[in-house]
Amino acid sequence: MKQYDKVQEAVGFLKPYNAASATTGVVLGSGLGNFVQEIKVDQEVRYEDIPHFPVSTVEGHSGKLIFGSIAGKPIIAMSGRFHYYEGYTPEEVVFPIRVLKFLGVQTLFISNAAGGVGENFQVGDLMIITDHISFAAPNPLLGKNDERFGPRFADMSEPYKKSLITRAKFIAAEQGITLREGVYFGVTGPTFETRAEYKLIQLVGAHAVGMSTVQEVIAASHMSMDVFAMSVITDIGVREEENTITHEEVLQAAKEAEPKFTTIFRELIRTL
Fold first, then answer.
1. Which of 10, 150, 188, 196 is 20 to 30 A away from residue 99, measured at CA?
2. Whole-prediction pTM value?
């Protein structure tokens, strides 16, 4: 069965849950699952119950699709996402993004936990993603193109919607929240980067590095969706002292930054 047919089967199963005709989707990354407490939940569907849906295997990802509203706006939230390093193909990683599009989602909010390589970045910083570098992550559009999803050669000149970035910066200023902004470098994982890799990533012009997001954004851009993405800086890659990084520390840093992250996403959704 082709991916398009699988998507349509999943969409057919999920349509009854989307009675509010949500046009906004949210993808929650590592340690950011508590954002769902802000959502007025109408329905929850476990990933394993959805036809052809992958199932998350990562700690910090609960694995359910939530239909509800936030700030009075109907949304569909992915509590848990899928990664190439889990053994999924790029096509499987972006399958839920395709499903969201065909359910009617036009604006997609994406979050992730990332390592900071920008000058003066600190653990707990929030970074608006203004662009990304994806050479290190396999492109999900490889192979025969299905025009029902989008064109053969997808335009990537504005993968992150500038108008949404402008609004987010205004909201942050109003709320007294300091925001960073920069380029996200996508890697496959699951290993954290070596010191030499961190330095290379910094040299090529990136400000943060992570194991998700770029494939999802490529698929969203392919289908002409508007994307806003933000990283929580959970560790610092380039520093002189001896240091190691654990997934537990990443989750803890994300948890501490979550209130600020939640405020930005909630108020930004309110403006839609």
1. 188
2. 0.93
> Which residues contact residue 29 at a Cβ distance below 8 angstroms, ignoring those fewer than 6 apart?
81, 110, 111, 112, 113, 212, 213, 232, 254
Provide the residue range defining the domain that includes 92.
Answer: 3-270
Q: What is the pLDDT of residue 242?
A: 63
Compute mean pLDDT per 10 residues along the chain, 272 residues long, and list them.
Answer: 96 97 91 80 95 75 87 94 93 97 98 91 93 94 97 97 98 96 96 92 96 97 98 81 70 79 94 94
Backbone angles phi, psi at 9, to 5 degrees: -65, -45
Q: What is the CATH number of the domain that holds 23?
A: 3.40.50.1580
pLDDT at 37: 86
DSSP 4-32: HHHHHHHHHHHGGG-TT---EEEEE-TT-
Other CB atoms within 10 A of residue 219 CB: 27
Structural domains of the chain, count: 1
Compute the distance between CA of residue 187 and CA of residue 134 in angstroms, rounded to an integer. 7
Helix (H) / strand (E) element for 172: namely: helix 162-175
